[in-house]
Amino acid sequence: MQNGTNLYALDLSGASFTKACGGPCTEGCVTLARIGEDAWALGDSKRPDAQPLRFTTQELDAAGIDPARFGLGA
Known about the structure:
Layout: E1 18-20, E2 30-36, E3 39-44, E4 53-55, H1 57-62
Antiparallel strand pairs: 1-2, 2-3, 3-4
């Protein structure tokens, strides 16, 4: 992460998570929120109490996760 920022130290209280669904989303969906300039939180709508995983934009790209699929710009 740029400037040595700890992704897990970033506050999620104001994060707005969106879903990316390829179908009816009856079994739950992956959720994504931008939590910083180069920081993202990835959650699971089936487990809303679980701590979201956090990634840099580069890490999301390496994992094949496109924020545009969630209606978010990288």
